[in-house]
Amino acid sequence: MNELYPLKFHPIVKEAIWGGNKLEKLLNKNTGKIKKASESWEISGVMKNVSVVLNGPLKDNNLQELIEVYMGDLVGDGVYDKFGIEFPLLIKFIDANDILSIQVHPNDELSEKRHRAYGKTEMWYVLEAEKNSFLITGFNKEINKKIYLDHFHQKKLPDILNYEKVSKGDVFYIPAGRVHAIGPGILLAEIQQTSDVTYRIYDWDRVDKDGNGRELHTDLALEAIDFGHVDKYKTSYEANINQTSLLVSSPYFSTSILSFDKIIDKDYVTTDSFVIYICVEGAFSLHYNSGILEISKGETVLLPASLNEFRLEPSEKSTLLEIFKP
């Protein structure tokens, strides 16, 4: 059995009408013949979209096969006990060249009842945002089902949505039940529960060449939507150079940010979980017990739970997102 080491995976590139060219241009993804590349799934355990290893002796094995063999050594004993061979997180980059439909995701309970699946809580980290870019998260006031349906049927749903201007480095936590959409001109990293359950609630009255609108999931969404309002939708954080700063702590994932321009030693001895690095700026080398791995902007790496000490050596000022399962 091969010894575990930090793993890179082949990106799974998706196409959508709202996609663009930033995945290739800014993150060096090979998008092939895809003209409107919308998403790059970096680490995925989603059925029919399971990530395949890109580097080292385990190359060409998929993530599910590896968990089957290495179990807790790869993902952490607690994670393996709960999720078995299903990897619990989906990591992706999203390039929105046009506004996405308004969506909502069900929570674990509703998703299990309806789809025999996990719910979808997620977060966004903005890598690039064009001038006046915005996204939608939540409502701009406290509403209820009746107010929502009145606006929906009168095609006035946009009037009660909360719009946020965004810039590079912004963070948004999107718990299951919160309506949301990414606006045009935004490139972001998304960290979410492993789930592909999405309810589309509004698509800006767009139609295809035959005059047909996209399918909406109005009734399914009603039970899933959180009609509440919060004072602040954007996540506040302080990022100090050469210090790891927490961005989001939830039952589903913990995400921190580290900007560094000198050697950093990391110790995960007490973390019973895999760790994921997403390089969002710069380039660095990852030193581990038996080797060195070069990582640059746009690359994502899975660090096995059994390897818990790493040295990060930047070749220029670099920024990474650090994710694990609490």
Would you summarize the structure shown here?
The chain has 326 residues and is mostly beta strands. The protein has helices at residues 22-25, 63-70, 72-75, 77-83, 108-115, 145-153, 218-224; strands at 12-20, 37-43, 45-46, 49-50, 89-96, 102-104, 122-129, 134-139, 161-165, 171-174, 180-182, 186-193, 199-202, 244-249, 254-260, 264-267, 275-281, 283-288, 291-296, 300-303, 309-314, 318-324. The model has no long low-confidence stretch (mean pLDDT 96).
List keywords for this structure.
7 helices, 326 residues, 2 domains, Jelly Rolls, mainly beta, five-stranded antiparallel sheet, 22 strands, single chain
What does the overall shape look like? globular
- What's the number of domains? 2
Tally of strands: 22
| Major β-sheet strand ordering | 1-2-5-12-7-10
> What's the CATH topology name of the largest domain?
Jelly Rolls
How would you spell out the order of helices and strands?
EHEEEHHHEEHEEHEEEEEHEEEEEEEEE
Helix count equals: 7
Structural class: mainly beta
Strand portion: 35-45%
Label the CATH architecture of the largest domain: Sandwich
Within CATH, the superfamily of the largest domain carries the name Jelly Rolls
Ranges with pLDDT <50 over ≥5 residues? none
* Distance between the ends: 28 Å
Q: Please tell me the overall pLDDT.
A: 96
Major sheet size, sense and barrel closure: 6 strands, antiparallel
Calculate Rg over CA atoms.
20 Å
Helix content: 10-25%
What is the CATH level 1 assignment of the largest domain?
Answer: Mainly Beta
